Amino acid sequence: MSPDFPLAPLDLAIIVGYFAVVGIIGYVVAQRIESGEDLFLAGRTLAWGTIGFSLFASNISSTTLIGLAGDAYRTGIAVSNYEWMAGIVLVFIAVFFVPFFIRSGLTTIPEYLEKRFDVRSRKYFSGLTIFTSVIIDTAGGIYAGTLVIKTFFPDLIPGMGPEMDFYVTCFILALIAGVYTAAGGLAAVVYTDILQAVILLVGSVFIAGITFAEFDFSWAQATAQLPEGHLSLMRPMGAEGLPWLGTLVGVPILGFYYWGLNQYIVQRILGARDLDNARWGAMLGGLLKLLPLFIMVLPGAFALQLYPDLGNPDQVFPTLVTDLLPVGIVGLVMAGLIAAIMSTIDSTLNSASTLITIDFVKPRWPDLTPQQVGTVGRVTTIILMLFAAVWAPQIREFPGLWSYIQSVLSYLVPPVVAVFLLGIFWPRTNGSGAFATLLGGHALSITVFLCAQDGLLFADAPIDLHFTIIAGILTALCLGMLVAFSLTLGPPPAEEEIDDLTWANRVLETGPAMAWYKNYRVHAATVLALTAVMLVVFW
């Protein structure tokens, strides 16, 4: 350890205390695990508050804290469009998709594809989700956490070169999260997420407040020297960063996949005790997603005036922490960063383990006891942890963490989004059409990806569009592909087979009478109204 590392003893004590609390929670919860369902879905006992805060904490990861601030520093606050759009998407998911997921008793999202179509689509989507969970989400969390820790501990292990030291730090982070996730499962994940969500919010508020204090709490001073459009949510097509068209056609696609189809996120909703708690939890998560603009993105934008010459935008958040915060608060924010790291890694590891166990192992060996299923889940968690830790250092070869995550998803998710959307809303969609669209859509995505990269197939790429616009175009093409395949590759499914799996001949159910403050429609209207106000202010 470097002798001049910037953490005071009080800061270290706070961080160690956090680790101790997380370890105790994992141990206590592990003692209650009796079956695979307990491990993967917390026994389907989660209440709305737990779900909402867990959704927020799992999403606001170390990749988000670092990536949002870095992109806001580089291109402006339009990067927060990914955040507020989540509220709109979660309202859509809670109203139209959650009822089918809860009533079907799903353990994994790919299960829905088997019920609606056939086992081919389920296996395909499950494999894709495992890949994205490990390579994008888990590895991204490990990389971002290592980046932060290396800021405070340049030489974590004396005498070891920087390259090997980076790898060792990745493995240490992965090991800590992997062990308590394997022991406690989803219950340990969501209960530690509540603690992590609070720390994330408090730490981010401190960063935002102290950054603003550098400008004497004057909005005019904080924005005086920022480039034109830096504080606008809607950027021109030719501007660097997220263009307005990408916000409208691409960000909703990425958000729909992330919040509605991504196992590591939706797993919390699947663990709800009933439909009402699932919906309320989703709405709370959407409400919390309005906060990042103010407590995570704006500080990164303002930092352009404080540190105009930073070589790597991903260093903005660590720099704000080390340069501005007093002793004690640094430890709190570091605990928040560690919380974010753990939240991402534990969530993705648990979801990927769930998919492997439920979608691949259990169908092959159906006679496994609940205890054996739990053991398989724990072993796969550790194996996936090792894969993610090995891949994480390779992310350094990409231009930026946030672009790495979003651009990869822009090519992977369009066929999946198309299949789920038409699967719910168009009963004519059949199994052969869905599977052909998944295969054909990803073949198209690979082709477009190669044509959009300079130096791969062409010296100058013939496709020069922002990846969010590409995501929108690919989704539209996949929707057309699915309609064509479903009309030509077999008859429509029998109505009685899919009656409980689509919106055909259905209306929005009213449910039992309840107080207005419990009505999910009121919650949805509140989230949408607050989002509209924010858009008007920062348009």
From TrEMBL:
It holds the Pfam family SSF. Coiled coil: none annotated. One of its GO terms (molecular function) is D-glucose:sodium symporter activity. The keyword Cytoplasm does not apply. The chain crosses the membrane at residues 12-30, 51-70, 82-103, 124-146, 166-191, 198-221, 241-259, 280-304, 324-345, 373-392, 404-426, 438-459, 465-487, 520-538. One of its GO terms (cellular component) is plasma membrane. This is SSS family solute:Na+ symporter. It comes from Salinibacter ruber.
